[in-house]
Amino acid sequence: MFLLRDPFFAASFRTIGAFCLVTVPAELLLGFALAYLLREPFPGRAAVRVVLLFPWLISPVANGVMWHFLYATSSGILGYFSALLVAAVVVVGALYAVLNRSEVQE
What we know:
This protein is about 85% helix and about 0% strand. With about 110 residues, it is an all-alpha fold.
């Protein structure tokens, strides 16, 4: 309950509310205006559409590159940990073989 009485919290809540009340309708109007303008054919319309969609396309590409680097066998973090796991399995297997061999020789 202390948070609700904090003056900084109330001020930040008012700021966020005012920001949302201004930006959401403005972005909605701008989006509808651009959609209305781009529905009619004009020279260069395809290029304008590509320029407008380019930021939307960048996000999946960046995500794919990130996962590619994570899964890379030679440099990725997941490849590193899987190599450690394989090395641990090899060491445990070798120890098991040595212990079994010593039991057989006795």
